[in-house]
Amino acid sequence: MASIMEKTRAYAGGPTLNICFAYTARYDMAGAVCEVAKMVRAGEVRGEEVTEETIGACLATGYARGGERGAPYPQLLVRTSGETRLSDFLLWETADAVLAFYPVLWPDLTMWDFVRLLLEYQAQCDGRKKGLMRRGICEQGKGEAWTAGSEGLEDKGVAGQFEKSREEYFEAIRGYRGEAKDSQRT
To answer: How far apart are CA 148 and CA 118, in angstroms?
Structure first.
């Protein structure tokens, strides 16, 4: 893994895909703290200068391990399978992310599910941002968990309209398939 990171260090274009094998956030954070301790012992940084940015830079996704720039923090974390826990995954990096708990298993996630997640994410972000701005709080707030279909999104708004259109689309397909079978019989 280290040789792959070294060979791709200069890559500076396009999106980044992180693949985490045998990853736990607690192990990653412990490693980052150990790295910071080494930096303090080596005199590279004074103990009172250590900030959360210093620790974040030493995470597996941080710039101290990944070259000039670290991996961007996720804005949306989707937990599939219906579980409502994070399973020790990217805990530091997702502090400000929107968390979506979706009842579908990852291999069964369809394009329609993905589009719905993005629409609900967009609605969640728009609502959060307006509320925070109205209260005079910073532009980006702390992440809030939501469950697919929560807060009435299932019944109203863009996500609800999308769901209705999706159901009509599949109903039309089922009707078309039924007509095709009937015409084959005659």
So the answer is: 11
For the entire predicted model, the pTM comes to: 0.56
Q: Which amino acid is at 89?
A: F
* Alpha carbons 156 and 164: distance in angstroms, whole number: 10
One-letter amino acid for residue 75 of the chain:
Q
Contact 28, 92 (CB under 8 A): yes
Helix spans in 45-156 (H): 52-57, 63-66, 111-134
For residue 77, list its beta bridge partners.
99
Query: Strand pairing of 76-79 and 145-147?
Result: unpaired
> What does each of the 186 residues of the chain score in pLDDT, given as a tens digit?
567 666 766 666 666 666 666 678 999 999 999 999 999 999 999 999 999 888 988 888 886 555 455 677 888 888 888 889 888 888 888 888 888 888 889 889 898 988 888 888 888 876 666 555 555 544 444 444 444 444 433 334 545 555 566 666 667 666 665 655 555 565
For residue 142, the 8-state DSSP code is: -
Q: Which amino acid is at 158?
A: V
Q: Which residues contact 86 (CB under 8 A, 6 or more apart)?
A: 77, 79, 94, 99
Give the N- to C-terminal CA distance of the chain in Å, as an integer: 62
